[in-house]
Amino acid sequence: MKMISFSLVILTCFVSANCIMWTLEPNSQKCLREELQQNIPVIGEFEVSEASGQTVDYVVTDSKGHILAKRQGISKGKFSFNTESYDTYEICFVSHVPQNFKGIAQEVSLVTKHGIETKNYDTLGEAAQLKPIEVELKRLEDLSNAIVQDFAIMRKREEEMRDTNESTNSRVLYFSVFSMCCLLGLATWQVLYLRTYFKAKKLIE
C-alpha cells in the first residue's frame, strides 16, 4: 500500500490541476492560453469577487475563434468542454463597467483540470463496487497511461523538430553551395569581361 501511495505521489507530479488567481482591472480583459491534444475533456471552476454595478463575462475559444463555452454576468460556477483537435485554447475573463461609474478591481480565481484529472474516481468506484485499493490501482493505471501518452507525444514532437532542423541544415548547405557557385561564376565573368575590355583598349596584349 505504501508503494502504491508513493507511486501515486510521483505520477501526480506529472498530471495535476492548474489553479490561478489574479486581479481583474475595470474594463479590462485577462486571457489564459494552453496547448491541448485532441479529444481531451476540460473542466474549470471559477469565482469572481462581487463589485456593485460591474459584470464579468468569460469565453473559451480555440485559435480559430470557435466559441467552446461562454457565459455573461458570472460570479461563481463551472464550465466544461472537449477539445476538437490539437490546438491552443484560450480562456478570457472580461470586465464591464458602466459609463460614468468608477469601477474597482475584482479578484478572479480559476481552477482547471483536463484529461484524467476530470474523472471522479470515488463515483466510479461506487458505481463499479470497487474496493479502495482497486480504485487507487485504477487511478494509478490511468495516470501511467497518460504519462506514456505524454512521452509519446513529446517524442513525436522531438522527431518532428529534428527532421525540421535536418531539412533546414540541408537547405542552408545547398543555398551556400549555390551562392558560392554564383560568386565564382560572377568573379570569372568579371575577369573575362575586364580582360576583353583592356584588350579592346589595347592596354594589355
> What's the multimeric state?
single chain
Largest sheet: 4 strands, antiparallel
The strand order across the widest sheet is 1-8-3-6
CATH architecture field of the domain at 2-118: Sandwich
Q: Secondary-structure element order, as H and E?
A: HEEEEEEEEHH
**What's the total helix number?**
3
- The CATH topology name of the domain at 2-118 reads Jelly Rolls
The helix-and-strand class reads alpha+beta
| Rg calculated over all Cα atoms | 30 Å
Low-pLDDT segments, ≥5 res: 1-16
Please state the average pLDDT score.
Answer: 84
* General shape: elongated
How far apart lie the N and C ends? 99 Å
Tally of DSSP β-strands:
8
Q: Characteristics of this structure?
A:
about 200 residues; 3 helices; Jelly Rolls
How do the strands and helices of this protein lay out in sequence?
Layout: H1 2-14, E1 18-24, E2 29-36, E3 41-48, E4 55-61, E5 67-71, E6 76-82, E7 87-96, E8 106-114, H2 121-128, H3 132-200
Antiparallel strand pairs: 1-8, 2-7, 3-6, 3-8, 4-5, 4-7
Helix pairs in contact: 1-3, 2-3
Account of the protein in words:
There is one protein chain. By secondary structure, the protein is α+β, with helices and mostly antiparallel strands. It is 44% helix and 30% strand. The chain has helices at residues 2-14, 121-128, 132-200; strands spanning 18-24, 29-36, 41-48, 55-61, 67-71, 76-82, 87-96, 106-114. The chain has a 4-stranded antiparallel β-sheet, with no helix packed on it.
Short synopsis of the structure:
The chain has 205 residues and is of the alpha+beta class.
